[in-house]
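ok so I'm stuck.
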Amino acid sequence: MGEDRRIYLDYNAAAPLSDEAEAAMRPYWHDVFANPASRHQAGQAAWAAIEAAREQIAGLAEGESGETIFTSGATEANFLALLGRFDRLLEEGREASSITVALSSLEHPCVAACGEALKRLGAIVKTIPATREGIVDIRFFDSDDEWDIVSVMAVNHETGAIQPLKNIAEKLRNRRTFFHADAAQWAGRINGGFKQWGVTAISLSAHKMYGPKGIGALLTTAPSLLKPLFPGSQEGGMRGGTVNVPGAVGFGAAAEWMTRNRDGENRRLSRLTDRLWRRLSEQTNVIRTITPEKALPNTLHVRFVGLKGERVVDALDRLGVCCSSGPACASGSTEASAILISMGWSRDEAMEGVRFSLGRFTTENDIEEASDRIGSWLRQQAKHVA
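replied:
not stuck anymore, here's the structure
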């Protein structure tokens, strides 16, 4: 059984390119195409566009334009932050075995991969545990341990749970710690940034906020603390290679739209998410995993008790509803969610999670129609069981 109209409820995986971003990018494919590192006027026009985009992105994240380093996405930004800081410490004379790193158990697979790489390189890497509510346990930082590098995401990619970055920063205030946050899922959806969080660096990805894929940024108050992964003269010497000018411009336009419309969108998406939950909660085997006050307003993570999340996602896809059971990069995995396991769920429970994430183009009609399709399918499953 299929449906003619597809309803997209997977904005945390990727958001569509906005009209504003597409329009802003268009001149930089053909008209203003020069290399921004060139000294001539054509190159300087491209350079000016990049600098304007830095301002827009920094404005979203409560930073300064000079703190913005363009990358290919949040994954590269995360590696630049964590491995770049490690390499700089080695350059300063530290022994690898003396470098201490703390990463939360809730991190995206790319940050977990950074942790594994740091272990192989000899660093001491510890895991910050999570609570049942999907929040890192900040009691981890009550000890007298000193941390060279700490990385805790701003918002969890799977559950939408908002992490207590400010509280962690306060516990690290008297310590010489490079505090990094993967903010790809935050994406300007709620208030936040350097001033509120008290972090050293954050990673962003344009396609999470209606910008183009293939570009992101690392924003840091202390670039001198990092050693570049790709040496070169571009990006203040922090990231070699010609900057993706159209991508940067589209990223900037998307960031500016999020800055202007964040509060109104929060209220609208919160209402729609609440409506989706009220409709789904009519089914006896659906459990909400994160309370709304602790999650992004656009994200609803639930358990379909007795049903594997991947099976639910596949069935709903056939019904024209797009959602997910984990990060897009792990789609198709038959393993239980490492995030949910870290929150204290059993393996069977961790297989039942499904994420619905709403966005700018989600309508009330989308929510009503998606709810009808999901409810109808669940009632059919109940009949089969009976």
